[in-house]
Amino acid sequence: MTLLPPDADTVPDPWQAEPAADPLLAGLNERQLAAVQSRAEALLIVAGAGSGKTSVLTRRIARLLRDRELWPSQILAITFTNKAAAEMRERVGHLIGHEAAQGMWISTFHSACVRILRREAQQFGMTQAFTIYDSADSRALIKRIVKELQADTLGLTVSAVAGKISRLKNELIDADAFARQYNQNDPTEVMFLEIFRRYTAELTRANALDFDDLIGQTVYLFRAFPQVAALYQRRFRHVLVDEYQDTNHAQYALIRELTRGVRPEHVPADTRIETDATGAIPPAKLTVVGDSDQSIYAFRGADIRNIVEFERDFPGAEVILLEQNYRSTQTILDAANAVIANNFDRIAKNLFTAVGAGDKITGFTGYSQHDEAQFVADEITTLHDGGMPYNQMAVFYRTNAQTRALEEILIRSAIPYRVLGGTKFYERAEIKDVMAYLVAIANPADALAVRRILNTPKRGIGPATETALAMHADELGGTLRDALSDAAALKLGPKVTGAMLELARILDEASATIETALVPDIVTAILEKTKYLELLRASRDPQDEARAENVEELVAVTREFQKNNPEGRLVDFLTEVALVAAADDLDDSSGTVSLMTLHTAKGLEYDAVFITGVEENLLPHQMSASEPGGPAEERRLFYVGITRARKKLHLSLAMTRSTFGDTQVAAPSRYLQEIPAELIDWRDSPGMGMRGGSGQRQLGSSKPSFSYGTSLPPGKPKTEWANRVTNTVRDNGDLTLEVGDRIRHDDFGEGRVTGVTQNGAKSIAEVQFDSAGRKRLLIKISPIVKL
DNA sequence: GAATCTGGTATTTTT
DNA sequence: TACCAGATTC
Asked: Which keywords has UniProt assigned to this entry (predicted)?
């Protein structure tokens, strides 16, 4: 490791003499300053949580541009999410002016690769309009293949196959490479190889790439076509990668390819880039930022070695450690440090702050997940009453399934919230249907998309006809679309034949317009011609009304897209949709509490954070126990969650948790014991005092002894504070309450109304319950009766 | 070929 | 609990 590259001293730097005079260096600490100014060929910034790494990264870029060391187009910055990319672009623009920042590539690995691949598609025999298969698409395809080969008899499930293919691709092992190393004596492996081969062939035939291919195919492109690689190696003179600890092998390989020098034969005579004595162009500079303690994507192939072995991979690399935290209180950092210290194979790192101790962490143990959720809702209300805006609070959980109880209670408590990620809009069946139409229009070779819409809406083309079509496509040596246009040759009934020809005509007509037509026009035309929306409206299934609304929402999305991208065409829209991530649609301006998984929380920060379900088998998750390095990764996940909090951290758990349908006793997470007891202020459920459970109280007070299993009485106590929330949809109609009214609540018992906010169906009552404390309730749907 | 019913099975995290 | 696949019936 060199401390400072020699040329830092020889290049005159007008700003270096008086750093304070440079606004881009103002307010930085010594380490941050070094990171912003470093001129190393390769720089690793080890940035602890909250250490201002985004600030460092944006200032580093801004400085390169402002001082004319590089043109914007020579910079490639890779972020983990599109949202992070947008934020970085915004911040750089803010520092040096938005025009000066035009032309940079700031995007995710996947977006950058799609951009390159669309441009170079013909090099590897695909068309520019290739489809991007998301995981659900991949699974659908694998499912069909598994079925055809009856691979389930060998114990090969769809998810197992999908997982294995993904893992192999992340290691840059394709079907052929796998064929060279697999165990030929194992029938399961033989079968797997066959599935892998067919899957690959089907993708190629469909002119489609799956998520993992986007990276792998780009690496392949660069390795197979040096002159193409040279194009990008010449162009990007500085590559920056954020969240480097979460890169997998394929992404690492991509970075390696991009930061290779260009051989003289690939350097054009008129190049304006400096060449060395041999006429070659030196490698691009590389800056990576990461924190091995925040590596939480090993399950997706992230390889922590990429960061640990950075100095070996890039000789002469400079390493700068950022440890001062500007986000959290010392109490929160003490807890985080204490937890992460239990991961033994890490480089010691201790976050510190000048902020001061701050509030203690609030701990809470509820009877049930509903009880826990009520605690979260009550705390949120208290904090909000104290002046903290809703959008400065976030609730984290390990699994998406945990949102249900939280949502129920938040709705009842009239707390505005939004769920990031989870069952996404684009995963809904009706949206996938319409998207399949768009995909089929953009990429006629995509058989998966055509199959999906073949009989949607119902037009009498069943499985038998579908098989006949597929066979006919093989005979023709063409695509499913070709077979559809030639449906008459199948000699089926006039009704079916007519339906197929009609569909073919609709698709062909739309396909003819994609180069010029606006996206909203294409969608509305399709909905019109297929009567998709019309049929949903006419349906007597009550859910279809909501589906119709969703489809309309999609049309609105296309309008919004077109507004933001006047030049955007169908393919661009499909790309954008395929690559949106959970955290991307985060809208900070909305005054709502954010709910998300711990994974989604990475990179974000809030004044108040609630980490829920801190229980064994949930955090750490049951499934992680069997995986090597699982518990350590779960600990990092907990660490990531803790370090998101600026001022106030809440850790909560439930003694029982219902999954599947039955309720199980839950034990507190092992990670709780790792936090020094004096940092946590344990609070009891209001219901606990009523049961006279001094044992419980003691347990909750400081040093949990973790023996709920024995202390929990068999059979739930029927107290007023029942540990359940009725899940029937209650509609109180136009029930009106006034201050002073007595009411009874199914869960909280009796209480007196102390305040009412009149707002039609959204009227909120503030109630002082006799034993359960003060609550805010949405009158219309709360399980209450007036007494 | 479509609609309805039933029983079995599964939930970790995501670009 | 909730969804899916397969069987049964129209």
From this structure: ATP-binding, DNA-binding, Helicase, Hydrolase, Isomerase, Nucleotide-binding
